Amino acid sequence: MSLSVSFEQNPPRVVAGEQRSIPTRAATFDTTLPSLHEQARAVRDKMFGRRVFVRGVVEVSSHCRENCRYCAMRRDNQELKRYRLAAEELAELIIHHRPVAITDIEIQAGEDPIVVSEVVLPLVRELRRRTDLGITLCLGTLSPREYDRLRDAGGDYYVMKVETGNSEHYDFIAAPGTMAERVAAICYLARKGWQVSSGLIVGLPGQTPAQVEQTLNLLTLLPLAGCSVSPFVAGEQTPFAVAPNGNIEQTLNCVAWMRLRAPHWIIPAVSAMALVSKDGYAHAFNAGANLATINLTPHAVRADYPIYKRDRLIMNEERVLSAIEEAGCNPSRVGIVDHLRNAAEWFS
After folding, report:
1. What is the dihedral of CA 30, 35, 41, 46, to 10 degrees?
2. Based on the structure, what is the number of domains in the chain?
3. Residues 262-302 pLDDT 10s
4. Whole-angstrom distance, CA of residue 161 vs CA of residue 143
């Protein structure tokens, strides 16, 4: 599907001399050389302490105009029951019923311009008027006007994942638009004052270790405040349904690599880690992650937002706080947006 806008800025090129190899196996402990995860954890602790940001997420629409081969919300999935939630219902939930540990809220949807104008914009305005929450949006590739309206309404942080940094592989998995357009959108958002996070999926069908390395090196060249890495989870009702899941050790090694390469990044533990490995979510904090997300989506529609599969593992308040405690960390009292604002003032 063609995007609604073509950005002029070209994606940055990865310089060969800047590359750093990505371990594909877990680093082993050596008394004279700390493991990769230990090094990353030490860097995280130096930059942030043992504080983990806690964000809530509401998944406001499962409508999507894209047709990604790895996602069950793809537009060709005729078996999926689609929904859009109401702004008033969401405002009531977030303002009056969010867990006390949450300092930021993420509003997430399939790529659905209708929900942006009819639900997300009024919701962002209401949250900005009535709360001091940091507001993160994950709504896909939109037009510059839509980005600007969301920013003016009070949006702070935008999640725009590339998933893979190899353009041929990007086309193979049918990710939104082209990789160049996706990267240019990230650059546009950053120029307009957004804090931007991106990310990749490890273990995608057709992906090589060299492509993982290429993707990570590309991400370090982008104007990002944060980045995620998720193991591939074979989604039901997708063309990749029978593919094997991604490897948790390689995923966690990528978390550690990102922390060492970009110490200031906000790096989340993601629910897919818990799907492919019982302890994967908690282990992400021990590899340098510093963000957890509590799912606040109403129970009635959770199964209809199958990023991976309908039988979802929901990271609720209890699971998230237990994982943070298991890793020897504590929920941060300072939100993501406030932290980034304070850091910018400190360095200015």
Report:
1. 70
2. 1
3. 999 999 999 999 999 999 999 999 999 999 999 999 999 99
4. 16
